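Please go through this protein, sequence plus C-alpha cells, and consider how the sequence yields the C-alpha cells. Keep your notes short.
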Amino acid sequence: MTKNITKKIITACCFFAIGVSFAQSPVNGFMQKAGEGGLSLTYSYESYDKVFLVPEEVNGVPVFNDVSKTSISLYGDIGISDNLNIVLNVPYIQAEGNATDATLANNGFENERSGIQDLKVYVKYRFHSFKLGENTLDFIGSVGLETPLGDYSADEGLQSIIAIGNEASSFNTFGIATFKTKSGLFTTGQVGYSFRGNSVPDALISELKLGYACSKFYLDAFIANQLSEKDGVDILGEGFTGFFPATRVNYTRVGVNGYVPFFDGIGLTAGANTYIAGRNIGKSTGFYGGLVYSF
C-alpha cells in the first residue's frame, strides 16, 4: 500500500457519515491532515411502511400508508491542522407519502414535502494519539451545531409525519476513540449528547464501527443508537398534541459502507442501512451512493 493511496483511502473514510438521513453519526474517527480534505456529493433513498410505536410495531404509516425519502447531500471536510478538522454538511430532502386522494382532500394534506434541511457544522480535535507497537489509538473530541437552513415547517399536525426535519437547532458533543492496525483493520467507538431546541427531547447518541481499509477498497459495518430523554411524548399517546418534534425518538440502526477509488483523488462510495428497533420512528431501510473527491 503506497503512502499516496493510503492517504486517499483514509481521506475518503471521512465521508461515511452522510448516507441516509440520521443513519450515522455526523462525525467519525478519522482525521484529515493539515491542508487536506475533500468534498462528496451523495444521493440517498429510504422507505418504510411500518412504524415503531408504543407499545408495539404497527403496519402502515398513519395517514400516509407508506413513506419514502430521497436526499442529495453536499459534504465537506478539511484539515486546519493535523489535529483540527472542520466538517460541513447540507442536505436537500424530499419526503413523499402515499395517502389516498380522499384523505388528502378531507384533511387538506399533501403527499410531498421538500427543501433544504439543516446546516451542520462540526469541529473535531484529536487530543492524543498513542502508538501501540505498529498500531495507533486516537482520542478525538467533537462539537457541532445543526440549525435549520431551509424554509420548512415541522408544526403541521399529522401532515408533519412527512416533515423533512424537526425545525430545531441542536448543539452536539462527541467523544471518539479509534484503534487502527498496520494491516488496515480498525474500530471506532463514540458516545455523544445532543442538546436540542423547539421542544425536541435531548438525546444520548452512540455508534460502534468495525472496518478494513486497503489500497483497493474500504469497507465498514456499524451499529448506531439514539436514546431520547424521557420528557418526550409518544405518538398518539398521553400528552401528544400533534407536534411531532416533541416525541421521544429512540432507535437502533445497522448498516455497511464501502468505497472504491478509480482515479487519483476520485472514488465512488455506497452503503445500506436499516432500523432494527425503535420508538416513534419509521422502520426504514435505506441505500445511498455518491462521488468523493479528496485532495
